[in-house]
Write a structure and sequence with these properties.
Chain A: It is found in: Cytoplasm. Chain A: Iron-storage protein. Chain A: Belongs to the ferritin family. Prokaryotic subfamily. The complex is a heterodimer. By secondary structure, chain A is mainly α. Helices cover about 75% and strands about 0% of the residues of chain A. Chain A is elongated. Chain B is an alpha+beta fold. In chain B, about 35% of the residues lie in helices and about 30% in strands. Chain B has two helices and six strands; from the N terminus they run ββββαββα. A four-stranded antiparallel β-sheet of chain B has the order 1-2-3-4. In chain B, strands 5-6 form a two-stranded antiparallel sheet. Classes of the chains: A mainly alpha, B alpha+beta.
Amino acid sequence: MKDLVRQKLSIHVEIMDLLNKQIQKEAHSSSAYLAMASWCDHNALTNSAKFFYDQSLEEREHMLKIFKFINDNGGTAYSPEVQGIEHDYNSLQEIFEVALDQEITITKSIHNIVYKCRKVQDLNTENFLLWFVTEQAEEEQTMRRALELFDLMGTEGLALKFIDERIPQIRE
Amino acid sequence: MKLLFTSKYFSSYQYDKGRCFYVDFYRKTVKLSFCQLLAFRQQVKKINPENHFNGENKSGIEILMLCNREHIFILDTLEILDLQELVNGTFGMLELNSLLSAPA
């Protein structure tokens, strides 16, 4: 019997399922950052708002990268539904803590797919995901740098304004 | 045509010459390209049979539309459970075939 699946699909079917789940996570992450940007905008934290708008766009680009990878390799990518986005936060510090947790969750998820790729010998997807492994380490580091600013300057009064002014530099 | 898997109500086949698949729904046989087979799998996997028992799906039926809405199927709880078995079995056999066909 011909291996029609392999002829049509360059990635493992179970890996395709995991990548589709990852698309959902990236989309959720993108929407969550948009909610954070909105909160910052409403609280006159202009630089932080811009930072989260950019983060939202970046997560969407990650999502599209995976989306196209699935389709380019003969699979079917599914457009994600996004639900349960939190819009209420107590402080900018809380927002960055949530953002860091979110990045850690995404990192773990990417790592799990890489482990699965190794198990089923899907070298194509493993190679594709290595870019995400590096990217996630950088994303986590960016959020940690933001949280270090709160350790350094505190969270009260003018400190918040100074932190907001420093936010554009945390990516550097 | 090679039989891939048979469940209580349904069967799946691979047709090498036509490079396609067939699913026998006991009164109707549907031809599926690989892409359509993936879409069929996704639709069946998305169904949560628990909803048939916890009151969320009061009718106890599911409507499946296959091949870009060319075919419509109305299935009850037992048929859905059986269809999920068919999908798992079919893809299990296809994976086994990939392993056996792979060069040593």
